[in-house]
Amino acid sequence: MASIRGKDTKPELLVRKFLFARGFRYRLNHPRLPGHPDIVMRKYRTVIFVNGCFWHGHDGCSCFVLPKTNTDFWRAKIERNKTRDVEEQRRLAAMGWHCITIWECQLKPALRQQTLESLACTLYRVFLRDHVSSYSQPMESAPIAAEPAEGYNASH
Which domain does 37 fall in, by range? Predict the structure, then answer.
């Protein structure tokens, strides 16, 4: 297991290349955030986890098959990984971060483009929701160009 990569995996590189080509900028494996997310997009307050189907126990996926030998060990290990993933995402959400998980099987050639386009669309929606709504004001509190004169000093 020592030779299993935790960073710069092929699925992660696919996502990073797509994001960079679309103009998204990011940081990698931020050490101060819970779980050291694979991709951190501070502008969007979003973190992206690119999970391997086997190591993170992707339920209902054909890529996740529990080994036939040493089954108890692998079941416990994968359950710990799943529990840890959920806890890290809860902590990130409590800190105000949006969490996106992309599974390895979603980056297979048949689904890759659809998955990546969906990711870009989600990031644009997060950006618009967080940034546009902070600038808009309700109509009742918006200043009116021609307000009544009694609110102003008569000398002006």
Answer: 10-131
